[in-house]
Design goal:
The chain is α+β, with helices and mostly antiparallel strands. The protein is 23% helix and 16% strand. It binds zinc ion.
Length: 86
């Protein structure tokens, strides 16, 4: 792969990331079954719904309807204090 091709690949990745961010507001249901990108929906055992983005150490949870800067930072459901599913 030439340097130009590498640059194009990186640019394409950035565009995809930006598109994913833009999709945040309206894409309510992630695709199940293993895509690392995009937004997933999870539901705690207590019924609290979450949006989940990323995977592994980069996974971030929000409660449904929370603002983007209101991520769940302590890894526990704010409704019932159970550890969040990972
Ligand atoms: Zn809960």
């Amino acid at each position: 792969m030439s340097h130009r091709r590498v640059g194009q690949a990186i640019a394409a990745g950035l565009v995809a990331a930006a598109a994913g961010a833009l999709a945040w507001g309206w894409r309510r249901h992630g695709r199940g079954g293993g895509g690392a990108a995009g937004v997933e929906e999870r539901t705690c055992e207590c019924g609290q719904a979450f949006r989940v983005v990323g995977s592994g150490r980069h996974r971030v949870h929000w409660t449904a309807g929370a603002a983007r800067d209101e991520a769940v930072l302590d890894g526990r459901c704010p409704a019932c204090d159970r550890p969040l599913p990972s």
